[in-house]
Amino acid sequence: GVLHEDLRLLLDTALPPKRKKVVLGVGDAKMGAAVLEELGVQCQTGGVVAELMRGIRLHFPALVRGLTAQSAAKAQLGLGHSYSRAKVKFNVHRVDNMIIQSISLLDQLDKDINTFSMRVRSWYGYHFPELIKIVPENSMYCRVAKFIGNRRELSEESLEGLEEIVMDSAKAQAILEASRSSMGMDISPLDLINIESFSRRVISLSDYRKGLQEYLRSKMSQVAPSLSALIGEVVGARLISHAGSLTNLAKYPASTVQILGAEKALFRALKTRGNTPKYGLIFHSTFIGRAAAKNKGRISRYLANKCTIASRIDCFSEVPTSVFGDKLREQVEERLAFYETGEPPRKNLEVMKEAVVEANEVVAEVKRRQEKKEKKRKKREKRRLEALAAAAEEAAENSVMEMEENDVGAKKKKKKKKQQQSEESEAEPEPEENGVEEEEEEEEPLPKKKRKVVVEPEGEDEEEEEEEEKKKKKKKKKKAVARDSEED
Question: Given 311, 333, 359, which residue is the final one in a domain?
């Protein structure tokens, strides 16, 4: 009843502002009701509208520009695939395909383990024939045969291991005594190795069967808890597998569920005009075995009715619980007691009212747990995103720091190179002669940074020249005075 967001957006953009006065032709009455509820637009449905919609679909490529018949066919195919995928998308925890495969594999394993165990019995029976009567169970026989090996090596020290396998001290003692007086033939070590290897494989298959049965039980508690609580996991899984799916089983009437699995007997009875079968797969339930011979047909009909109710509850409930299955099982127990003692059972209405109250409480608790799990999951996701963001920021900061360090290191290297060049330029060679040294000093240019252009004023040059002339005159006077004194 909720209008799809894409359709709502399309109608909002396509319809005029005064859309309450518009009458929209819709081919589906449910869609028209949804449009009226959401948008307040009057919708009309009928034969004329259906014909118009058919004509629009037929000539849609001609009505829309750029849309060819080929692209329209592709769009229809894609829509069909999307619709099919949406129908197939169920909750992964409630997929009944896994139940069908697991119950089929379980039946196949039962047949194979039985066949292989009989092969071990006939093979090891040549060596120890008395063991078959002492240990009749298949998997236990294979374990005992693997443990014993050569019966002549069995002694009092092996009693403890035998008791662990057989779980009975008297039976273990009987095996020991029978091995001492057995009439079996001797066996070679190579044959014994092959028997032990085959026994080991049969034991592993039986262990896998136990694990598969636990898996089937857990899947049935998730997919069909009411049906499994009413009739058992194995019988419920066989009903689902025979019907094809839980939805198909829910669609069957109670009369079909009653004889489900006995189709061959039914058609033979219809052909020969004999008595039709009273039960099919539900015969394996404990209720029919506990009922008296004259009440087996009654209880099977009643049980099929309750199985139909349980399967429909499991199929169409949002949060499946085993409350209804437990209540239905109590009703079948009361009906069995009524057939035996005559005690009247409770009415179905009373039982269902109690079941609805309990189921609401269970569903509320389950939803509360789911909300808690969702909150925890969101918190973990938020923390993870924050940690990723912090790590990204740290990485960005580290990259920036590395770039800055690289820049600083490059600058320092440049400075060091300049200093070395300046030191090399300032470094002077050892003087050999004064004249050479003075020439080198005059010819050696200063580095660019340390060159200083000194501009001396003209007045100072003139004063220096006058002083030099005065000094020369004084020297001449002194020389002349010294000559005169020598002459005297």
Answer: 359
Residue 304: alpha-carbon gap to chain centroid: 36
Q: What residue has token string 């269902």?
A: 352
Q: Are residues 127 and 239 in the same domain?
A: no
- 296 and 265 in one domain? yes
Q: How many CA atoms lie within 13 A of 245 on its CB side?
A: 9
Residue 92 pLDDT greater than 80, yes or no: no
The answer to whether residue 135 sits within a structural domain is yes
Residues spanned by the domain of 305: 224-359
What is the token pair recorded at 363?
Answer: 């569903």
In a domain, 326, yes or no: yes
What predicted TM-score, i.e. pTM, was given to this entire model? 0.62
Q: What is the pLDDT of residue 22?
A: 52
Quote the pLDDT of residue 12: 63
DSSP string over 229-265? HHH-HHHHHHHHHHHSSHHHHHHS-HHHHHTTT-HHH
Rounded to whole angstroms, how far apart are CA atoms 434 and 192?
A: 114
Cα–Cα dist 99/241, whole Å: 7
